[in-house]
Amino acid sequence: MKVQILNGQSIPNIPWQDRPENCTDVVWRYDSNPVIKRDALKCSNSIFNSAVVPFEGGFAGVFRVDDKHRAMELHAGFSDDGINWKINEERIEFVQQDPSTQQVNKWLYGYDPRVCFIEDRYWVTWCNAYNGQPTIGVAYTYDFKTFTQCENAFLPFNRNGVLFPRKIDGKYLMLSRPSDSGHTPFGDIYLSQSPDMKYWGEHRHVMAPFMPWESKKIGAGPIPIETSEGWLCFYHGVLESCNGFVYSFSACILDAQQPWKVKYRCAEYLINPREIYECVGDVPNVTFPCAALCDKDTGKIAIYYGCADTVVGLCFTTADEVVEYIKEHSSI
Ligand code: BMA
């Protein structure tokens, strides 16, 4: 491998398919997509934008489940192979250990979770309602059974809170996208820092929409992957067409020590809505990545992405290929 995966994990059972012979794309889809169908649960209207990590030799995750009331809920789930999932029928009931969070954390809705292992536990961030308005919720778990909720990271309005998998200079780092109370026709990615996962500051601008495919707004996706070239970050971008928003995704490489500095940024999307399950669903034309598994020994990457706000798809690349592609097609 030319690109080394730093501080990563061996995942010998990472879900994987080789690139089909007739495909020249740098990221290719699993041929049996979607991996999670909308009716995987009795209560589910749709299951999409969900986060998956290696766990106890298999995999665990936090899933966005919109139920048949059309309430947006988070459910835990488990899998041996990353493809066949057993998702809990009941939503996560977050534990409020701190009396002050009992006051603020009245559950209203939660969506677009990310899961990040840092040091000794799995941190969950998601779009959480505070005072009925979206901001970044924070919780941790050791076992995907008990989830302890903490203070929200920011004031409303904010979305797409994505943690880095290790501290830098003693601080936790989080990407996010300040937004508004509605369908937000704007948005840049920012980075914030915290000594304790509670107080966030030292905010830095990372990047703004740039190319046409992402011209309306951008948002961080899976947990950044640390490589010998810097942090490999997949992110979504939104184009506004005469028929509504189109969500595609691509990737950039952020500086290893100062990740608010963008080293390379792919000018093209890597995946855009074109398969039927990406173009047709509750919200058409959406591909929205929330998790990426990366095997440090081979550089294989498996990306989980929501499709048309209805189902979960899987696609693949390798660190060598995607990093080379980003560098060759960089807009900076
Ligand atoms: C965004 C979020 C995502 C969703 C997307 C497309 O604002 O709500 O959960 O996938 O819109 O509807």
Number of domains: 1
Strand content: 35-45%
Mean pLDDT: 98
The CATH superfamily label reads: Glycosyl hydrolase domain, family 43
Short description:
The chain has 332 residues and is mainly beta. The protein has helices spanning 99-104, 276-279, 319-328; strands at 28-29, 44-55, 58-67, 72-79, 86-87, 110-118, 121-130, 133-141, 147-149, 158-163, 172-178, 189-194, 201-207, 217-220, 225-227, 230-241, 244-254, 262-265, 287-294, 300-307, 311-318. The protein binds beta-D-mannopyranose.
Model description:
The chain is mostly beta strands. It has a single domain (28-328), classed as Tachylectin-2, Chain A. 6% of the residues lie in helices and 45% in strands. The protein has helices at 99-104, 276-279, 319-328, and strands at residues 28-29, 44-55, 58-67, 72-79, 86-87, 110-118, 121-130, 133-141, 147-149, 158-163, 172-178, 189-194, 201-207, 217-220, 225-227, 230-241, 244-254, 262-265, 287-294, 300-307, 311-318. Strands 14, 15, 16, 17 and 18 form a five-stranded antiparallel β-sheet that branches. β19 (287-294) and β20 (300-307) form a beta hairpin. The chain is globular and about 55 Å long. The two termini are 25 Å apart. The model has no long low-confidence stretch (mean pLDDT 98). Beta-D-mannopyranose (BMA) binds at residues 49, 111-112, 247, 283, 286, 288, 306, 309. Beta-D-mannopyranose (BMA) binds next to β6.
